[in-house]
Amino acid sequence: MIETGLFYFLAAVLLGLGLVVITRTNPIASALALVGAFAALSGLYALESAKFAAVLQILVYAGGIMVLMIFVIMLVNLPPQALEPLKVRGSVMALVLLAAAAFLGAPLAGVLFTGGMGNAPLPAGDFGGITGVGEKLFAEYLFPFEALSLLLLAAIVGALVLVKKKL
Amino acid sequence: MELFYPVTPSHYLVLSAALFTLGVAGALSRRNLFVVLMSLELMLNAVNLSFVTFSRMTGEMSGQVVVLFVVAVAAAEACVGLALVLAFYRMGESVDVDLLKTLKG
Questions:
Q1: CATH code, domain carrying B19
Q2: How many domains does chain B have?
C-alpha cells in the first residue's frame, strides 16, 4: 500500500517536473526542475530495490552533470531578449504529446485498471546493492568498464580542445 | 473494481515511456540548445528506468550494470555537448538551434 502510494507520488513529481523542464523559457528553471526530476527518479530506483542506481543517480546526475550544465548556462549568461516564449515550437510539442497520448493511452488504461506483469521473487544476496553490482561489473563486464574509462578520457580531451579560444 | 492495483513492472514501463515522450517533445520543439540537451538527458533517464525495471522483473542484475554505463556515457555526452554549445556561443553570441545551419547543403 505504501509502495503504491509512493510510486504514484514519485511518478507524478517526475512527469510534472519533466513537463516543467521542456516548457520553461529560462534554462536555469529547466535545469533546477531537472534536478528535482532526478531526485524523484532516484526514489523510484530505490522502490525497485536498485540501491546502487539510486545513489548513482543523485551523485553523478544531480551532483555532477547538472552542476556542470548550470555552470555553463551561467557562463553563457543569455540576455533576456534571447529567451522569448516564442522560441518554442508549440505546434510540434503539442503534436508529439498528442501522438504519445494516443499510443500510451491503451497501455496506461490497461495498467491502471487491470494490473500488469509480475516481478520475479527477489533473489538472495545483495540485489541492486553496491556489492552485487560490483561483483557483476568487475567479473562479467570488466572489458566494457575499462573501455568506458577510455571514453571518458577521450571526452575530457575533446571538450578541452573544443573550448579552446582559437579552434 | 479497486482504485489502485498493486504497482507492477508495467506501471514503471508506462511511466518510462511517458518520460521518454516528454524528452522527445522537448528535443523536437525547443530551440534553446541547453533545453535540447536537457531533453536528451530526460530520454536517457527514461531508458535507465526501463533497464532498472527489467532488471527487477527478471531478478538479473546486468540491467543495473548497464545503468552505470549509460550514466557514464551521459556524462561524456554532457561534457562534449556543453563544450560544443560554448564553442557555438562564441561564434554567434546565441544558443538558438535554428542558427545551426552552416552544414546545410
A1: 1.10.287.3510
A2: 1
